[in-house]
Design a protein that fits this description.
The protein has helices at residues 2-26, 31-55, 61-70, 76-83, 87-104, 108-120. By secondary structure, it is mainly α. The longest helix is centred in the N-terminal third of the chain and has 25 residues, at 2-26. The chain is elongated and about 55 Å long. The relative contact order is 0.12.
Length: 121
Amino acid sequence: MNFLIDYWELQEEITVLEIDLKQLRLNTVDVPTIQRLENYIAAKKDDEAALVRLIHTFKSVESKILKMKHIDGMSFEQIAHSLDCGCSYVRQVHEDLIGAMKNKYRGEVSEFVDWRLSRII
């Protein structure tokens, strides 16, 4: 489940960096500074792509459900069809995993998990 937190944090970091880049361009900051930030964002996007490739290799049903729901953006029904199981089973596994994640990452990260889930679910 750590992969999901890592993925969300990386997505959030890229979003913030892209907003910063837009601000720098509006404020006509020197080209080398903008280029450094563009290169850093590109490296972060490469990290994100590598993480997604790694996640796609996961074999457990639990990891597949989390990946399909939160990275691929599939509905519970689509996941159930893809995994050839019942939708209620997929929902229950997802609920159990998210509950376990919230319990494991109490405090700051738990708030981040709650915030991300509120935007997705």
